User: What shape does this take?
Amino acid sequence: MMNLINCKKCGKVFASSGSKVCPACSEEEEKKFQLVKQFLWDNPNSTIDEVVEGTAVDRETIIKFMKEDRLASHGLTIDFKLHCRRCGKEIDSGEYCASCRNKVISDLNAEEEEEDVEKDYESGKMFLKDRIERRKK
Ligand SMILES: [Zn+2]
Ligand SMILES: [Zn+2]
Assistant: This one.
């Protein structure tokens, strides 16, 4: 199904079939990914600063590639540690450490968007507040 949404990067409205960035921005990102990939082929296990310097790709985008496991899936590593979203443990790629990933996969919310997770958290907080308030009465 096609939805009209705003591109997460440039804010332009486009017809999306699931992606959050418009075709122009995703093409731009793909170009950056190729740059990073090629740089790491020539300079394996560089530090993130070396990659930024060597490719002119911004740090956030490189970290995003790491979180999306895109570099790891090509067998490429950067000498930079990410932190598990759940327990904060140092990891090489992805968003969770191995043990948290197992737990998250069994959780139905694993595939939810970040915003939805935040919303869930908010409603969880409301729920708790509700209970505390009810207890006071
Ligand atoms: Zn865009
Ligand atoms: Zn963890």
The beta strands are 3-6, 13-16, 82-83, 90-91.
